[in-house]
Amino acid sequence: MKNKTFKNFSFNMIGSTVNSVTSLFLLIFVIRINGVDIGGIFSFSFSTACLLQVIANYAGRAYQVTERSADISDNDFIYNKIVCCFIMILAGFIFIFIKNYSYVKCLILMLLTLFKMIESFAEVIYAIVQKNDDLYKVGISLFLKGLLGIVIFLLVDLFTKNVMLSILSLILLNIIIIVFYDIINLKKYNLKMKKMKLNNVLKIFKFGFFTFTLTLMTQYVINASKYSIDNYLSDKYQTVFGIIVMPATVIILCGQFIIHPFLNKLTNFLKNKQINEFNKMIFKLSLTILMFGICSCVIAYFIGIPFLQLLYKIKLGKYLIDLVLIVFGSTCFGVAYIISNALITLRDTFSQVIIFIVTSLFAFFISNYLVLKFGIHGASYSYLYTMIFLMVVYIGYYIVKQIFYCRKKYL
Question: In this structure, what are the phi and psi dihedrals at residue 102, rounded to the nearest 5 degrees?
Answer without folding.
Answer: -70, 165
